[in-house]
Design brief:
Blueprint (H helix, E strand, L loop, with lengths): L2 H11 L2 H13 L4 E2 H8 L3 H13 L3 E6 L2 E6 L1 H12 L11 H7 L4
Antiparallel strand pairs: 1-3, 2-3
Helix pairs in contact: 1-4, 2-4, 3-4
Length: about 110
């Protein structure tokens, strides 16, 4: 991930509702959520939710899929991996054992 994409991602996530949306979509996994479901879960009005989802889409953190008259949103896990990889690119100064606790913390627990 290049610096500009990283800055766009952090900018998108620097607002509380957008961060909550992204975390909710990560939790939803491969099933994603309809925009109305996201708004309802977070208590956010439809027009506000639409604007927040657009910011996350433009930052490349989420993707969407039209299903008839509705739109389902998904966290873009590839983009999330790229962002985490960018942050850890120069981690630990060649001592991978120092990074292991961070990797353990972000790994999905079975």
């Amino acid at each position: 991930m290049d610096l500009n994409k990283t800055l766009a991602a952090f900018s998108a996530l620097s607002q509380q509702t957008r961060l909550e949306v992204f975390r909710l979509l990560v939790k939803a996994g491969s099933q994603g959520l309809l925009s109305g479901e996201i708004g309802q879960a977070l208590g956010v009005r439809q027009n506000t939710m639409s604007a927040d989802l657009t910011v996350l889409l433009n930052a490349g953190l989420v993707r969407n899929e039209r299903q008839g008259r509705t739109i389902r949103y998904f966290a873009d896990f590839d983009a999330m991996r790229e962002l985490l990889g960018f942050l850890m690119e120069d981690c630990c100064g060649g001592r991978p054992e120092l990074c292991q606790p961070v990797i353990d913390e972000i790994a999905c627990a079975g």
